[in-house]
């Protein structure tokens, strides 16, 4: 058999082998989504202590981010790395369209972070997580849209911020044009001291990126922080370790470190500070 014929035969066999693979296997090898998000099966297969990041952003926007830049530059993976450094635990990203709230209510899940979102998927997906948010004893922290989801689970209403006044600048005209937005690093006033704000002044500067807000403090929660345009900036459940902030404490830099302190305080409240694990002789994952 000639070299050309052998080469052609090899190519045909390779294609045939690929076609013979289950569709799920092919997708897993080629879809960057699967490099980022764990499914319910992966959650069920481990008893190791975990922190889970529940991502509620619209899948279309995530796929665009994954297509526009290398997978390891996806913001969710950066957050996952920071969580692992802060807690010493393995951290999994999961997407709320791929599991039920009950999948997260496991003894080895030690904390749940709920992300923000700029585009809704549908109320039916939100409602699947209401029982978890209302009942679990696992510490939960929701950022921006995550706080809004927590509030909606307790029947609070999420509404647009006011309209822009005549001549008022729009910091992001492409996002809900004509609507007032809190955008960028913004002062937020603490109205009720809480361990979440330990080591911070009464006015913090944190990252905002929203055009909607929770109309009033949800039932069973205390109000912790406010701004003039958005009175419900931070909340805490009265009897369970459930927190929410309208601002984004997970986004911070050297010039604006207050958000980092807020997240670290939450992990300390949840008993997950990496320093505490070192004291117990437990491994710290890097």
Model description:
- It is built from twelve helices and eleven strands.
- It is α/β, with parallel strands linked by helices.
- It has a single domain, classed as Class I glutamine amidotransferase (GATase) domain (Rossmann fold, 3-Layer(aba) Sandwich), CATH 3.40.50.
- A nine-stranded mixed β-sheet has the order 2-1-3-4-11-10-9-6-7, sandwiched between helices.
SSE diagram, text form:
Layout: H1 3-20, H2 23-30, H3 32-36, H4 40-44, E1 50-55, H5 59-68, H6 75-87, E2 90-95, H7 101-104, E3 109-114, H8 123-127, H9 130-135, E4 140-143, H10 145-153, E5 158-160, E6 182-190, E7 203-210, E8 212-214, E9 221-226, E10 234-237, E11 242-245, H11 258-269, H12 274-279
Number of helices: 12
The CATH superfamily is identified as: Class I glutamine amidotransferase (GATase) domain
Shape summary? globular
CATH level 1 name: Alpha Beta
Query: Structural class of the secondary elements?
Result: alpha/beta
User: Any low-confidence stretches, pLDDT <50, length ≥5?
Assistant: 2-9, 11-19, 23-28, 275-286
Q: What is the overall pLDDT average?
A: 89
Number of domains: 1
DSSP, total strands: 11
| Rg estimate, integer Å | 22 Å
How helical, in percent, are the residues? Answer: 25-40%
